[in-house]
Amino acid sequence: MKKICVIGLGYIGLPTTAILALHEYKVIGVDINEKILEKLNKGEIHFTEPFLGNIVKTMVDKEKIMGKTQPEKADVFIIAVPTPCKEDKSCDLTYLISAVKSILPYIEKDNIIIIESTIPPGTTDGIIKSIIEEKTKFKVGHNIYLAHCPERVLPGNIIKEIVENNRIVGGCTRECSQKAANVYRAFVKGEIFVTDAKTAEMSKLMENTFRDVNIALANELVTISNHLQINGLDVISIANKHPRVNIHNPGPGVGGHCLAIDPYFIIEKAPQLSNIISTARKVNSSMPHYILSNVKELMKDIHNPKIAVFGITYKGNVTDIRESPAIEIIKLLENENFKISIYDPHVQGENLNIVSIDEAVEGADMILILAAHDEFKNLNYINLIKTMKNPIIFDTTNIINLKNYDNTHINIKNLGNLFHNSYT
Ligand code: SAJ
Could you tell me which CATH number the domain at 229-414 has? Predict the structure, then answer.
């Protein structure tokens, strides 16, 4: 049985460990966090993800997964550690470099080393290859094999997507690509596209940049439309009837650990050439301020207004608040001395001060929807507003269907039609 060492047991490393173990590999899961390892070795997982817990439990019981603080000799090393943004928005490779260094003493001839972490183009074939070749006696492409194989899974659906999605495998040489592709062939049902490392790195970044740029276009469209008193949401739905047009959804900003970060890894490598990409980042980063200015406008005649924020995660139906525009909007509102109450059925945490829906709404002057949780779609808003001081709802995610309401009872604003509806 082949042995794989997975370094980094986070959102990507742990599911990868589980799936590899399920497909005839013995897997050593390595992490610097002893709490994660303690849980893993009891067959438990440290974040919620459908189906993952069961697989991990079974594989740990069968001794096909073992958690350790240090790597050990293996046939394959997969590195899936975080690559966050630095203060100046460039990619922080500290964890990645330290993970690579940690495996150096254990590397043997014919080993395959795979980087799954998201990285700027040129990193695998540049800095990572140099570290390995300088500090060991091996030469990449001759007696050891190095590749970048970016992950593409969506949290909440990882176990399905890790198997079914197409994969990009980018090796430093053709042989590196082929050897790394064989590792994934054990469990990937989608197609495996083999390319060079730089192309793989750039493709991964471009997938998320594509979405960021398109969301920026939608956000700019609604701000222009509001300025011109046009219903931006109507424009999107009508324009999208064209067979080759797909305008994305406007919203309170772009969050999460991918779309709001990955474009900067392209910008850092070619700042003078990344005009559209950096403008899109600016547009999306400005959305929390746009929301703030509209809340202020809607509340301008109200004394000491209280805002009930609904949803603080970076998008709907997740528990993750990383890079969430909602958190930034709350801070901006607090700086302007708005009283804030928070309701989010997906998030727990004492320091966030989350309250029940009734408590959040009581005495409020506005319900401000900042994450498109399904629970918010069909709430009985007519009932809900009864304890509010002012029945205004500002839905920045556009999940409330305005056709269900007439504005004699309730004043609902969607982001795309803030001050006007069609034919009003
Ligand atoms: N958003 C909008 N309008 C839209 C779509 C999204 O404002 O039309 C916002 C969301 O509310 C959220 C942000 O954008 O704040 C990102 O959401 P997302 O669902 O587009 O992306 P992530 O970050 O959850 O996951 C992405 C996925 N990439 C693509 O769809 C190209 C996923 O497949 C990747 O695995 C993941 O990034 C990653 O790890 O790179």
Answer: 3.40.50.720
- State which ligand 1 atom lies nearest to the alpha carbon of 372: 11
For 332, phi then psi, to 5°, come to: -60, -40
133-172 pLDDT, tens digit per residue, is: 999 999 999 999 999 999 989 888 999 999 999 999 999 9
**What are the Cα distances from residue 318, in Å, to 260, 288, 321, 379?**
16, 20, 8, 19
207 lines ligand 1 (CB under 6 A): yes
Note whether 268 and 90 are within 8 A (CB): yes
135 part of the active site: no
DSSP3 helix / strand / coil % (the chain, rounded to 5): 40, 15, 45
CATH node for 3-190 = 3.40.50.720
202 vs 320, which has greater pLDDT? Answer: 202
State which ligand 1 atom lies nearest to the alpha carbon of 254.
15
Whether 3-190 and 229-414 share one fold: the answer is yes
* Residue ranges of domains in the chain: 3-190, 229-414
- Return the best residue to mutate from 315, 322, 346 for the ligand 1 pocket (most ligand atoms within 8 A of CB): 315
